[in-house]
């Protein structure tokens, strides 16, 4: 899945895990949050941000619980296989690993004494020691339809991710380079509104410059989709360092401008028309559920993992609030850019050219390192979705078709639109909604049901979510489906008014 942090064997302390999780969640979505805050109003935005942060924390605990249940079942099945091998080595020689690990049935659970399994497995049978990705958990706990829906959801989300990345880099390059030439020097963040048909350099229009940059971005980074690439530790450190320098600079510069009485923002309390995009941006900005297995598993001491996650969410909520409130009071609503970093390329905000260009081009550096990793992740999910037991893909399908269907759609979307706020909003509101709310709730429900079937109703998962009552699962499911209906209705109504 997207966002792999480390190999399972590389353990780290809970506090290092806290930092990794913070870095994982706070990404591109945070750069689009200030404008979403401004368009929805500060009070509505704050209330919705806090509520969605709470919902995201709840579903995170559901995923951790499902991870523990998956570890317990894999451990139990290995013990059952070992016992069968000891009893009858000849009869067990035909049992395949896939039958042992991923078979949905639990016939042996009904023929073996449950209490003996519990005595042998307790107290560590629910310990999270093996990284079980969400795709594998879906295969263990869902039926075939559920597994296919899971992969459909994750694939759509990754397509949205790639489209956002493919648009964000050319937009940043267009804004910085078009404004660095001619009469537009230093004017990106001064409130001047440009049309796509305005001139950039000579006869080249801004939209032409954007598409040229998109073509260059595709030609430079697209080929990585056809190979295997992974995020190295040093690359992660470099991108994280650049991210935090940029975020801290933006907050400090906005606070300095406000303290000098140069603030121009007068945000409204509520604008219901902006809720749709705000919802999608907030969901996208709290997204981490799909990467939790690679993040939680290497933590050395997991006794208080839910409290650790809660602390992370509180810190992230405070950070998002600080970033957004300083932005909406520092800049007028109509001057806030889709990519917040571009507001700081104006000479009146900061007269140090290096800082202006660093902030303006910050998305180019960080996103360019993530694009190939997300693309390879999406390609691998396509392969997993269509894979059949014992089958292999022809060379053309494996090396050409899958990379092509991974790369072409998001580039086409980015070619047609560079409205980052809408791209983030739609990705978060639809695919993000499924990954962050619906899938974790179904995982928690199905894993609890299967755990009771295998180990008996008296067995307690040591990583059971604090929201253990079935009410919370039902609440999350109702909320998730209601959001689908609300966002769709909002889009239809908005389009009908045009």
Task: Give a structural overview.
The protein has 498 residues and is an all-alpha fold. It has one domain (14-79, 127-182, 195-496): Amino acid/polyamine transporter I (Up-down Bundle). The chain is built from 18 helices and two strands. The chain has a two-stranded antiparallel ribbon with strand order 1-2. A hairpin with a 2-residue loop joins strand 1 and strand 2. Helix 3 packs parallel to helix 17 (420-455) and helix 12 packs across helix 17. The longest helix is centred in the N-terminal third of the chain and has 46 residues, at 42-87. The two termini are 39 Å apart. The chain crosses the membrane at residues 12-33, 39-72, 141-160, 210-229, 241-258, 278-296, 308-329, 349-378, 471-493. This is Transmembrane protein 104. Keywords: Glycoprotein, Membrane, Transmembrane, Transmembrane helix. Pfam families: Aa_trans.
Quick one: how many beta strands?
2
CATH superfamily: Amino acid/polyamine transporter I
Number of discrete domains: 1
Order of helices and strands: HHHHHHHHHEEHHHHHHHHH
**Unreliable stretches:** 1-7, 96-123
- CATH topology grouping: Amino acid/polyamine transporter I
Q: Ends: how far apart?
A: 39 Å
CATH architecture level-2 label = Up-down Bundle
Transmembrane segments: 12-33, 39-72, 141-160, 210-229, 241-258, 278-296, 308-329, 349-378, 471-493
Keywords: Glycoprotein, Membrane, Transmembrane, Transmembrane helix
Family: Belongs to the TMEM104 family.
Domain Amino acid transporter transmembrane: 20-67, 135-467
């Amino acid at each position: 899945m997207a966002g792999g942090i480390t190999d399972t064997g590389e353990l780290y302390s809970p506090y290092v895990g806290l930092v990794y999780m913070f870095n994982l969640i706070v990404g591109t979505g945070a750069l689009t949050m200030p404008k979403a805050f401004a368009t929805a109003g500060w009070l509505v935005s704050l209330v919705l941000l806090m509520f969605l942060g709470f919902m995201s924390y709840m579903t995170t605990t559901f995923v951790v619980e499902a991870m523990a249940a998956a570890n317990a079942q894999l451990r139990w099945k290995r013990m059952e296989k070992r016992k069968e091998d000891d009893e009858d080595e000849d009869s067990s020689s035909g049992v395949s690993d896939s039958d042992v690990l991923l078979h949905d049935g639990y016939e042996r659970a009904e023929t073996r004494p449950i209490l003996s399994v519990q005595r042998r497995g307790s107290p560590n049978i629910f310990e999270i020691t093996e990284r079980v990705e969400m795709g594998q958990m879906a295969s263990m706990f869902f039926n075939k339809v559920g597994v296919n829906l899971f992969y459909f959801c994750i694939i759509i989300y990754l397509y949205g991710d790639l489209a956002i990345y493919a648009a964000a880099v050319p937009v940043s390059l267009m804004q910085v380079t078009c404004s660095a030439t001619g009469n537009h020097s230093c004017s990106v963040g001064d409130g001047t509104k440009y049309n796509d048909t305005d001139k950039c350099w000579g006869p080249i229009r801004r939209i032409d410059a954007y598409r040229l940059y998109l073509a260059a971005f595709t030609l430079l980074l697209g080929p990585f989709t056809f190979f295997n690439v992974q995020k190295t530790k040093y690359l992660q450190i470099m991108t994280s360092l650049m991210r935090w320098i940029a975020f801290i600079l933006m907050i400090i510069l906005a606070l300095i401008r406000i303290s000098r009485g140069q603030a121009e923002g007068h945000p409204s309390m509520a604008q219901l028309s902006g809720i749709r995009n705000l919802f999608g941006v907030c969901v996208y900005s709290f997204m981490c559920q799909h990467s939790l297995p690679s993040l939680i598993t290497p933590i050395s001491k997991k006794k208080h993992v839910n409290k650790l996650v809660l602390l992370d969410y509180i810190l992230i909520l405070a950070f998002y609030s600080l970033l957004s409130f300083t932005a909406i009071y520092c800049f007028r609503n109509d001057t806030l850019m889709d990519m917040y970093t571009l507001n700081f390329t104006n000479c009146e905000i900061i007269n140090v050219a290096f800082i202006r260009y660093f902030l303006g081009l910050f998305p180019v550096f960080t996103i360019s390192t993530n694009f190939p990793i997300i693309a390879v992740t999406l390609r691998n999910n396509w392969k997993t979705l269509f894979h059949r037991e014992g089958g292999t893909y022809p060379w053309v399908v494996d090396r050409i078709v899958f990379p092509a269907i991974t790369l072409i759609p998001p580039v086409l979307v980015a070619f047609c639109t560079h409205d980052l706020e809408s791209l983030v909003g739609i990705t978060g509101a639809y695919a993000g909604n499924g990954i962050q709310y619906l899938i974790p709730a179904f995982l928690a429900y199905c894993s609890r049901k299967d755990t009771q079937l295998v180990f008996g109703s008296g067995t307690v998962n040591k990583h059971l979510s604090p929201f253990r009552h079935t009410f919370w699962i039902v609440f999350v499911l109702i909320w998730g489906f209601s959001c689908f209906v609300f966002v769709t209705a909002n889009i239809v109504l908005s389009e009908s008014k045009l």
